[in-house]
Amino acid sequence: METTIYLATDRGGLTVIAGRDGNWRGKVYLEDKRVQCVVADSNKCGSVYCGTFGDGLFTSKTAGATWEKSASFTEPNVMALASSRSGSLYVGTELSAVYRSDDQGKTWQELQSLLALPSAKGWSFPPRPETHHVQSILPDLADPRRLHVAVEAGALLRSDDDGRTVRAPDLGALLVCYRLQIRLPAANESSLNR
Fold first, then answer.
1. Are 112 and 56 in contact (CB under 8 A)?
2. What is the CA radius of gyration of the chain?
3. What is the count of structural domains for the chain?
């Protein structure tokens, strides 16, 4: 079985590397784009999504061999992507917003406005303090309705209802979160820490 690796770089496009048994080949796509993120659809083999700064969302139905600009998603600054086991795709943008698609990117719906959260007025991305963005999106492996969202810089958010409502725990300080990661329990653990 062949393995495919997608490598997103801000100054050099998207590199697609495929191979097995020491025989690898790679090709760079979207060379003139500021690629921010990439995700392979965990529910549809060969479907890949690539987010760019300034040029929006690109899609591939050929495991990265060809790319098309998404006509259905019009936000220009795509900063984070995620694919959930339930079949939903998520896009995080600058200014901070999260969108969900339940039909492989044909249509998109904005989830609860993150900017309406009380903590939003304090969010700021240090290199450009007038703005902020969704840095990372993590669908929960233990609960398909739970979603975690990191805003750079300022918030770690959680939804327990597929993104219909979002809450930010009061941590009493500005939160800087660069990456979300989930750890599966070891065989001798009974549940995930919550």
1. no
2. 17
3. 1
Burial of 119 (0-12, 13-18, 19+ CB in 10 A): middle
Question: Is 185 part of any domain?
Answer: no
Gap between the Cα atoms of 156 and 167, Å rounded: 9
Instruction: Write the pLDDT tens digit of every residue in 141-188.
Output: 888 889 889 888 778 888 888 888 888 765 544 455 555 555 555 554
Gap between the Cα atoms of 85 and 80, Å rounded? 17
Q: How far is CA 145 from CA 84, 97, 118, in A?
A: 10, 18, 23
Is the residue at 153 inside a domain? yes
190 within a domain of the structure (yes/no): no
Q: What's the pTM value of the predicted model, to 2 decimals?
A: 0.85
Q: Is residue 174 part of a domain?
A: no
Q: Which phi and psi angles does 6 have, rounded to 5°?
A: -110, 120
